[in-house]
What does this fold into?
Amino acid sequence: MTPTYRGDVRQTIEILQSVLATEIVCVLRYTMHSISASGISSEGIKNEFKQHAAEEQQHVLAVAERINQLGGKPNFNPEGLATRSASQYAEGENLVDMIKENLIAERIAVDHYRELIRYFRDDDPGTRVMLEGILTVEEEHANDMQDLLDAHQGAPAR
Ligand SMILES: [Fe+2]
Ligand SMILES: [Fe+2]
It folds into this structure.
């Protein structure tokens, strides 16, 4: 922590704990979907879920590192995880449901991170820049899910 930090560091750590929980839930959801997606044309989708899970894991690490840098202790406690997260852990009944759940979660993440980027502005450029990097990936994720949904909407679940 540099003495020139202009934000409220405790508040920043609190916010980042919620971002961390959101990203962990994203890892769990995409991982679960990548395993349990089944049916015709599910192979490509499984791979996409798997790739997203790996990218969410990178976000987990980046956010946890940032919390650590700011003097906080990243909260990986499974207890209360869902409550700290901005998005839900939803399994989805079938392929289309799964895609929809991921799309909802990505949109929530995108809105949340845009808001946080505005909030941090110049008070904490380090955190802001990190969130901008994550936001770019979440926007891609949302686009990917929208494309999958368009391609599979109305298709039978299995
Ligand atoms: Fe993420
Ligand atoms: Fe994402």
Summary: The first helix runs from residue 9 to 36. The chain has a mean pLDDT of 93. The chain is about 70% helix and 0% strand.
